[in-house]
């Protein structure tokens, strides 16, 4: 069965999704490209697919019988309304991160998908990066022994990436700043690596360097995992330069009782448990695929889940754990207290 897909939103990340569908032409066909704000973006994307129509209203797509699945690349404030409508119409759904504006919305989306027996998958593409899959395999093999701590760090300058007036800078459209827009990637990845978080604390700030906006552009948080691992994160949306020499400007350091793994200038390991890694920090020589490759892998996983009737590894149900951490971080920053997750 060829899965007939509508792409809703044809901006930056949607281009990577479109490439994924081109590479998965054995499984799916894009039949509609929709952009509410810029019809030219939809026209440009539709030109990549022989049979694709162009529309400017997502509502017009939902009830169509010739569409089996929707791929939502729209701002977060539209995720829940579209997912609820699509699920009620029996469409399978891939929705970009963040899954929703908050945990409450996310729960309604999961319930709607379950009630209508459709696949709901969240675009947490970092789980699909080959380098991250290799690190998970090492962790699962206890290559550095029992993990005790993890540190993540990311620096960007958001006003140099998006123009004034972008939804990125409006809390009522984005859900927030660094945490829900960027840290969501690594928070989800850490759950994939280490399991659930039970307590968080956080501090947020605003530099004033990113136009007039009401989102946090500085976030520092501490995580306690169910298995006792302590995590630390620092995220900045106003960094003039990226001081971390990694492929993506994101730092990851994982410490275990028998060594460590980090990604400075490529992934490295030191391990007292594995002889070939015991002589000092050793490069793992992991693949550095283009960012689009992980999105393409994510798209294929979504299509395969529809065909097989299995739950995706980044299902809506699973992503409730990620959204719960995000909600807790915002609550901790607002109240100045440690927040426990239930």
Give me the CATH superfamily of the largest domain: Dihydrodipicolinate Reductase, domain 2
Task: Estimate the mean pLDDT confidence.
Answer: 96
First-to-last CA distance: 41 Å
How would you write the strand order of the largest sheet? 14-13-12-11-7-10-9-8-15
The percentage helix is 25-40%
* Main β-sheet description: 9 strands, mixed
CATH fold topology of the largest domain: Dihydrodipicolinate Reductase, domain 2
- Contiguous low-pLDDT stretches (5 residues minimum) are none
Instruction: Indicate the structural class.
Output: alpha/beta
State the helix count.
10
> Count the strands?
15
CATH architecture call of the largest domain: 2-Layer Sandwich
| Helix and strand element order | EHEHEHEHEHEHEHHEEEEEEEHHE
**Shape estimate:** globular
Query: Radius of gyration, Cα only, in angstroms?
Result: 20 Å
Binned strand content: 15-25%
The number of distinct structural domains comes to: 2
